[in-house]
TrEMBL record:
Residues 1-83 form the GST N-terminal domain. This is Glutathione S-transferase. Residues 86-218 form the GST C-terminal domain. It comes from Hydrogenophaga borbori. Residues 193-213, 218-237 are annotated as: Disordered. CDD domains: GST_C_YfcG_like, GST_N_Ure2p_like. It comes from the Bacteria. Belongs to the GST superfamily. GO terms for molecular function: transferase activity.
C-alpha cells in the first residue's frame, strides 16, 4: 500500500493520475495547504521541503519519496510501466518530464501568482510569464504535430505536462491556435484513469475555466497561503 500526501493542484494530480494508471493501491491523505498542514513536523519528516505531493511506499519498508517528478519516476520504475527500460527511450521520457519540471510548471505557477493571486497587478510581469508559458505551449504543439504522445508511447512525461496544460485558462493563456496540443489534451482527458486521478482529490474550483464565485474564493485562499508563507520567512529572520 502507498500513502499519497497531496492536494488538488497540478503537481498533486500528477501523482494520483500515475497511481490510477498503474493500478497501484493507495491511501489518499489530503493536506489542507491553507491551514499549513504541509509544514507540520510529521509531514516534514516525509518531505523536508514541506510541499505536496509525497508518497510513502509501505511495501518498500515505508520508503518516502518527495518532489512530483521523482514520485513519477519511482512509480514507473517500481512497476516497469509508463517509461521504457532502454536508455534512449528512458531518456526521451525524462527529457519531456524535465521540460515540465523546469519550464511549464514554474512558468504557469508564476503566471498564476501574478495573474490570479498577487494583490497588485503588474502588466509587464504578467505578460512575461504568460508569454513564456505560451512559448512553451508552442514547443509542445510543434512536437505533437508529428507525435501522438510526447515520448513514444503514453508515459509519465504526458502525465506531468498534461496535469499543468489542462489548467491553461487559470493562467490566462489560450490554446485555441494550438490544434495539436488541444488534440493531445483531449485524448489524455478521455482516459478513465486520468478522470479518476483528477478527482483524487477533487478541486473546489474548476481550474480549466474561470469567472465564478468559486474561482474568486480559491484565489483568495491562494493569496492567504502566499501571505502565510511570507510570514514564516519573516519569523525565521
Amino acid at each position: 500500500m502507498i500513502d499519497l500526501y497531496t492536494a488538488a493542484t497540478p503537481n498533486g494530480h500528477k501523482a494520483s493520475i500515475a497511481l490510477e494508471e498503474l493500478g497501484l493501491p493507495y491511501t489518499l491523505k489530503v493536506l489542507d495547504l491553507t491551514a499549513g498542514e504541509q509544514k507540520r513536523p510529521e509531514f516534514l519528516a516525509i518531505n523536508p521541503n514541506g510541499r505536496i505531493p509525497a508518497i510513502v511506499d509501505h511495501e518498500a519498508g515505508g520508503f518516502a519519496v518527495f518532489e512530483s517528478g521523482a514520485v513519477l519516476i519511482y512509480l514507473a520504475e517500481k512497476t516497469g510501466r509508463l517509461m521504457p527500460s532502454d536508455a534512449q527511450g528512458r531518456s526521451r521520457v525524462l527529457q519531456w518530464l524535465m521540460f515540465q519540471m523546469g519550464g511549464v510548471g514554474p512558468m504557469m505557477g508564476q503566471a498564476n501568482v501574478f495573474f490570479r493571486y498577487f494583490p497588485e497587478k503588474i502588466p509587464a510581469v504578467i505578460d512575461r510569464y504568460q508569454g513564456e508559458t505560451k512559448r512553451l505551449f508552442r514547443v509542445l504543439d510543434g512536437h505533437l504535430k508529428d507525435h501522438e504522445y510526447l515520448a513514444g508511447d503514453y508515459s509519465i512525461a504526458d502525465i506531468a505536462n498534461w496535469a499543468w496544460v489542462r489548467t491553461h485558462r487559470w493562467s490566462g493563456v489560450d490554446i485555441d491556435d494550438l490544434p495539436h496540443l488541444k488534440r493531445w489534451r483531449d485524448t489524455i482527458r478521455a482516459r478513465p484513469a486520468v478522470q479518476r486521478g483528477i478527482e483524487s482529490p477533487p478541486s473546489t474550483v474548476d481550474l480549466t475555466r474561470d469567472g465564478d464565485e468559486a474561482a474568486r474564493r480559491f484565489s483568495q485562499d491562494a493569496r492567504k497561503l502566499m501571505e502565510t508563507g511570507q510570514s514564516l520567512k519573516e519569523d525565521r529572520r
